[in-house]
Predict the structure.
Amino acid sequence: MIRNLTNRIILILVILGLALWVDLSDKITLPNPRSGSPLFELNTTARLGLDLQGGLQVLLEADLPETTRITAEEMETARTIVENRTNALGVSENLIQVAGDRRIVGEFPGAANADAILDIIQQTGLLEFVDTGDFQPQEGEILQTDYGLDPAALPTPAADGGNAQPVYHTVMTGKDLRSVGTSPDTLGTNYSIDFTLTPEGAKVFGEHTAANVGKYLTITLDKRVISSPRINSAIPDGAGQITGRFTADEANALAVQLRYGSLPIPLKVVETRIIGPTLGADSLQRSLMAGIIGFAIVLLFMGIYYRLPGITANLSILMYAAILFAVFKLIGVTMTLPGIAGIMLSTGSALDANILVFERFKEELRAGRTMKQAFGQAWSRAWPSIRDSNIAAVITALILLWFGSAFGATIVKGFSITLLIGVGISLFSSLFITHSLLALALDVFKPKNLERWFGI
């Protein structure tokens, strides 16, 4: 009935074996036979969303007047920086997306330290290398610099009776940084931040240090002094170090800010919401129970009503579930309650396709076709309906995905992504796996009693 049926069955078994391997593993490792060290490693731990494992949800808004125009590029840059900062702090599996023209929604599943996340998000992280001459300011002191100021508007002592706050010259900013890292001192008690500069920054840095040996080059973050080292010699190679009494966490947080640049716009927290893990665990348990009950009912119906084709469809659906879960783990899809709903809907699409084929199969048999003729006609004549229904599902999912991405509706986005992937795999399941398994069953059992085997 199907050419190369043996090759199809072998391919199905290989795909199923790989899927089960991924499903039952938290990490896939391929060892190097020569060295013994891992040649390839991939984390395949299931990723649970905010509603399933708890965590932090934050709504951020541009901290600028409503009349200030904010471009889409600035919002996207801010989103990327927030995502990079929180990832570097170890807050993995987060979801950061722009919502509207002025807002950003952040979701951090499993986040334990909400204060640290909020602190790193809101800081603009403007790093300045300031020429303070013979003056060494204290750590934590606020300096006024000329960066971003109109020279004609700078205050002068003469205009204010000599009481104007000094304005120091900014030699360069953090935009000239190329790489940033941390390193401990010899005792391992204090940490420093090591940095290298771009070629342009290295030139400016080298010229300034050569002309100001013995002077102080103060480093500020958001105008606050974090270090004020004396220039002992010219530094032409573009490599430097920020020293201070930094702990490992403080040095890492500062390095993250510097590494991922300054936010193009200041952000303020409009709303925060902590979702407890108890709520997430309860939601997950109830969802799984509902899914198992519904799945069992569907399997019973297919087996009782469609007999032999229904049993092959049940095997196909089980394989579909294994393959779908493996794909989610491989590409890092974060599972949420709406995502589970999308999976259930795509499972229904797979069953719909099988039902269309089986009903057509029974009609062909009733019309007096041979088993081989009915088998071939069932798939070819049911295909237009299967194709059109799945195209409609894909179009709907794409519209929902666009809506969720454009307006920050994470629930809608999670549903649409799982629905899209599920529809694709369900097509493969119904048109390839079920097709092959039913052909194999007909070849093995060679059924003659149509009422017993097909419920006709």
About this structure: The chain has three domains: 5-32+277-454, 55-122, 127-261. The domain at 127-261 is CATH 3.30.1360.200 (Gyrase A; domain 2). The chain has eleven helices and 16 strands. The two ends are 21 Å apart (CA to CA).
